[in-house]
Amino acid sequence: MQAWALPSSLPSSHPLWFVVSVVSLTVKIRSLEEHMQKHQKDKAQKRHLLMSTAKRKKMLKNLRKINYDVFEKICKELGIEYTITPLYCRKAHRRLLIKKALCLRVFQEKQKLKKQKKALKAAAAAAQKQEKQGIPESPSKT
């Protein structure tokens, strides 16, 4: 791993501020992970570990938006695997699945009725048009 020779007191407007913050958080996370291996019941440090991980993930997300090349380089050098989380994923319950199926069935039935109504209107309009032209609907034999 390359040694980063940047001061830790960079102003937040500096272009490499994200990089330094991500590196320092990664170092902190790795030391906390080692600590958690030895002291598994230390809840306070576990909380700090989770908060630091969330903070680093947020910073990586922002860095990815701002400068993708630097983001890739940082992830590669630090050995970080960045995975994009889905926006929202709700576990499907049986009740929800049944409700969805019912809603879908009702929607399809409604579409079918609309189509039939439209076809009847079109047939009525065509019959009316034929009557206006003077053509009888069915020729009668007299």
TrEMBL record:
Question: Any signal peptide, and if so, which residues?
Answer: none
Does the UniProt entry include the keyword rRNA-binding? no
User: Which keywords describe this protein according to UniProt?
Assistant: Coiled coil, Mitochondrion, Ribonucleoprotein, Ribosomal protein, Transit peptide
Per its record, how is this protein called by name? Small ribosomal subunit protein uS15m
Which parts of the chain are coiled coil?
A: 22-49
Annotated GO MF terms: RNA binding; structural constituent of ribosome
What Gene3D superfamilies does its record include? S15/NS1, RNA-binding (1.10.287.10)
The answer to whether UniProt assigns keyword Transmembrane helix to this entry is: no
One GO BP annotation of this record: mitochondrial translation
Q: What is the lineage of its organism?
A: Eukaryota, Metazoa, Chordata, Craniata, Vertebrata
Protein's cellular compartments: Mitochondrion
- Its gene name is Mrps15
What GO CC annotations are associated with the protein?
Answer: mitochondrial small ribosomal subunit
A single Pfam family, by name? Ribosomal_S15
Family note: Belongs to the universal ribosomal protein uS15 family.
